[in-house]
Inverse folding.
């Protein structure tokens, strides 16, 4: 099993409650970032809440450890990275 498969399985198990909240699980995607290399992208969407949750996982490279980023978005562009939001709340 690859690292992406392990992370996908673990995250989907932890996020299974999202379907009870009306979010649909979309197929996992592989993306590429110039800075972070290959990434696993996991998405859940809710048309009722007009929200999309995107989780990006990048495996460790010589320049960084494993990275997990969570982005919450809406159709009207009111999106934010959870880490950035929490950092602002901490000040």
């Amino acid at each position: 099993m690859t690292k992406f498969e392990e992370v996908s399985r673990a995250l989907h198990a932890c996020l299974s409650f999202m379907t009870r909240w009306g979010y649909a699980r979309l197929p996992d995607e592989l993306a590429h970032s110039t800075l972070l290399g290959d990434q696993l992208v996991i998405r859940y969407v809710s048309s009722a809440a007009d929200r999309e949750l995107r989780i990006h996982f990048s495996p460790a490279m010589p320049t960084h450890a494993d990275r997990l980023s969570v982005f919450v978005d809406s159709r009207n562009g009111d999106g934010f990275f959870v880490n950035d939001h929490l950092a602002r709340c901490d000040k």
